[in-house]
Amino acid sequence: MTSPAPRQIEVAVVGGGQAGLSISHHLVRRGIDHLVFEKHAAMHVWRTRRWDSFCLVTPNWQCQLPGHPYAGPDPDGFMKKDEILAYLAGFRASFDPPLREGVAVTRVAPRPGGGFDVATSDGAYVAGQVVVASGGYSEPVIPRLAERIPAAVLQLHSEQYRNPQSLPEGAVLVVGSGQSGAQIAEDLHLAGRQVHLAVGNAPRCARFYRGRDVVTWLADMGYYDMPVEQHPLREGVRDNTNHYVTGRDGGRDIDLRRFAREGMRLHGALESLAGTHLTFAPNLRAALDEADRIYNAINASIDRHIAERGIAAPPPSVYTPVWQPAEEEGRSLDLAAAGIAAIVWCIGFRPDFRWLDAPVFNGAGQPRHVRGVTAERGLYFLGLPWLHTWGSGRFSSVARDALHLADRIEAVRHAAAPHDLAVAV
Predict the structure, then answer these.
(1) Sign of dihedral through CA atoms 336, 339, 341, 345?
(2) Strand 332-334 relative to strand 116-120: parallel, antiparallel, unpaired?
(3) What whole-number percentage of the chain has pLDDT above 90?
(4) Which residues contact 253 (CB under 8 A, 6 or more apart)?
(5) 0.90 exceeded by the pTM?
(6) pLDDT tens readout for residues 345-375
(7) CA distances from 351 to 147, 167, 189, 345, 362 (A)
(8) What Pfam families does the entry give (predicted)?
(9) Which residues of 275-310 are buried (b: 16+ CB within 10 A; e: fewer)?
């Protein structure tokens, strides 16, 4: 039996999250034929990978999806999970995206004569251009060490955690102190659970400082408009762990030292397991000190901004530690003796681009691009952390990146342009 001929489309968008729908918004407005392929349901990550008490860690005013800025009653607040879902549903309803939910893209490859072959679970397509909007958080990271954890201990990744009541009675070990790890540890701590937290190298920042949200100060200082090539770390910033802070209950700092003073047990980074005995790196004191150094450094940059512009604001302050670990504290933990009933792995996600058969990756398997534009004509990335600026993977700036790519797509579509059009900034 002869296979049906591939269906022709101008642009294939892979991924139906906020990035995929943002580029779709611009393509719809320009009348550019395209399809958005989403193997699950649109925005599914926000429904399936967030715990019950989840809320934004950035103020609502930063929610600026294209044509759909936040218009609620609390721009300086932090939307909770249900409010986020309602905001995203409103964005989807604000235009009519050509969305194919439940359709997985299994392979994308350049065609010799131009364009791309796109294999999906719903048949074959040929696309003139392709936008990869599947994000950088596809596969949960769980260490091989987890395979040797005793079966009696429940293990789950942060994407599976919902609330303290869903875990068995007993102590809980949270591994990782980035945004998810710190917030889940706090969620369990506030519920009265005995929490052990394996602390990594995540930095922290203040929620409010000198009368305003720190995010608002940093926005005024232009930090969120800084392109990646101007950041002191250049592309290395893409590997950085996000600062931990919370928008819970109107927003506040997360201070792991205060949690320790209240009974949370802090450990260094997890290193090894022998039987039921875990060993942690001797980095706890250094990790806490470095997180506080960054906290104070951010505040000091705000101090300079205030002084240089003569802004009236409450006086400055410097955080001083409220608790210090003993020299050997947090080096070991016996799961059985400590009554550990569950482990929540909060060590992040990795992207999955195995389906993309194109020469656009570096030696570490990361996509090479300039503001999402690759050297492969007509192939783009959108929604990755620091694709262009800090907000590229967030509600705050994905619209700007999507507009940039829509301009490129339209230029390639209409002009008989030289190849370097696809890679110029």
Answers:
(1) negative
(2) unpaired
(3) 86
(4) 204, 206, 207, 245, 246
(5) yes
(6) 999 888 899 999 999 999 888 999 999 999 9
(7) 22, 28, 31, 17, 14
(8) Pyr_redox_3 (PF13738)
(9) ebebebbebbbebbeebbeebbebbeebbebbeeee
